[in-house]
Specification:
By secondary structure, this protein is mainly β. It contains no helices and 28 strands. The strands form 7 sheets. Strands 3-2-1-28 form a 4-stranded antiparallel β-sheet, with no helix packed on it. Strands 4-5-6-7 form a 4-stranded antiparallel β-sheet, with no helix packed on it. It has a 4-stranded antiparallel β-sheet with strand order 8-9-10-11, with no helix packed on it. The radius of gyration is 17 Å and the shape is globular.
C-alpha cells in the first residue's frame, strides 16, 4: 500500500516521505513551518510558516498553487474544513482567519486569543464549530461567522490541541495534565484522563478515537466514549513533537526531535516502519 506522510521540519522547509528508500525534500518556505494540513480529498495540502506566509500545494506534484499576501505576524496553524470548502489559518497573535481555498480571500477574521499563538485548529464534521487552541485556553467558534460560541473551561496548562468526534457532538482537548472530552454544545465535561507525564501532542482519528503522546515517549490510544485506554505504545523517541493517525485508523505515526518518524500498528503496538531526516526535528506530521 502506498504510504504518504507530510512532515514539517523545524530546521528545513518541508519533507515528503513515501515508500521510496529515502524521503523526497521540497523547498516550501524561507523559514520553519509551524502548521501543515491535507485537504479531505488528499488533492492539496496547506502550510503555515514563521515567514508569515500560508501556501496551498498540489499534493501529487508538489506545485505551489497559491500564497497569502504578507501578514504582519507568523502563521502558526492550518486546517481544512471536512467538506474542503474552507481553509482555517491560525496566527501567532491569536487570530484565526477562514479562507476560501480557491481564491484565498478571507471569509471572516477573528481575534480568538488575547495572549499566545493559535496553536491548533479543527472543524467539526457538521460544520458548526471551529476548535481553536492556545497555550492559554481553548475556544469553540461558529464555523460560518467566526464568532465565539464558548470558552471551554479546562484546568490544563500548555494546551496542545484537540479534535471532534465524527458527529461533532464531543470535543477532545489535551494539555499538560491529560485529555478531556467535553460536550460541544454546553461545554460540560464527559470524561477526563490524567496524564502520567506532560502531554506534548494529540490527534483524533476519523472515528473519534483520541491519542496522546507524552514527555516520557509514551503514546496512549483512548476509547472516545469513556476514555478507557485501548493501546499503550512505548516509543523510542526521547522527545516526541507530534502524533498522527492514518486515515484507516489502524496505524499511528510519531515524530520527534531526533528527526525520525516511526509508524506503529495500533492493535499490536509493533513498529512497522521508520523514516529518518538525519536528526532534523520534525514539528508536524499529517
Amino acid at each position: 500500500m502506498f504510504l504518504r506522510i507530510l512532515a514539517a521540519l523545524l530546521a528545513a522547509p518541508l519533507a515528503l516521505a513515501q515508500t521510496a528508500p529515502s524521503p523526497k525534500l521540497q523547498t516550501a518556505h524561507s523559514q520553519p513551518i509551524l502548521g501543515i494540513a491535507y485537504s479531505p480529498d488528499g488533492a492539496y495540502y496547506a502550510t503555515a510558516s514563521v515567514d508569515r506566509l500560508v501556501k496551498l500545494w498540489h499534493a501529487p506534484t508538489g506545485y505551489e498553487l497559491a500564497t497569502t499576501a504578507g501578514a504582519d505576524r507568523e502563521a502558526s496553524s492550518v486546517a481544512f474544513s471536512p467538506d474542503g470548502g474552507a481553509l482555517l489559518v491560525g496566527y501567532a497573535d491569536g487570530a484565526v482567519h477562514a479562507l476560501d481555498p480557491e481564491t484565498f480571500h478571507a471569509r471572516w477574521r477573528t481575534d480568538a486569543f488575547e495572549f499566545g499563538a493559535t496553536k491548533e485548529l479543527a472543524v467539526s464534521a457538521d460544520l458548526r464549530y471551529v476548535l481553536a487552541t492556545s497555550n492559554d485556553g481553548a475556544k469553540l467558534l461558529e464555523f460560518e461567522t467566526g464568532l465565539e460560541w464558548r470558552t471551554l473551561d479546562l484546568d490544563y496548562w500548555e494546551i496542545v490541541g484537540g479534535g471532534f468526534s465524527p458527529e461533532g457532538a464531543t470535543v477532545f482537548i489535551a494539555g499538560g495534565r491529560g485529555v478531556s472530552a467535553l460536550d460541544a454544545n454546553n461545554g460540560r465535561a464527559r470524561w477526563g484522563v490524567e496524564a502520567e507525564a506532560p502531554v506534548v501532542a494529540v490527534d483524533v482519528s476519523a472515528e473519534g478515537t483520541p491519542a496522546t503522546a507524552d514527555a516520557a515517549g509514551v503514546v496512549r490510544v483512548l476509547e472516545g466514549n469513556a476514555g478507557e485506554e485501548l493501546t499503550r505504545i512505548q516509543t523510542n523517541h526521547e522527545k516526541i513533537l507530534d502524533v498522527a493517525f492514518f486515515p484507516e485508523g489502524d496505524r499511528i505515526a510519531v515524530s520527534g526531535m531526533n528527526g525520525v518518524v516511526s509508524i506503529y500498528n495500533i492493535a499490536t503496538g509493533e513498529r512497522v516502519k521508520t523514516f529518518s531526516w538525519r536528526g532534523v526535528p520534525l514539528a508536524k506530521i499529517v
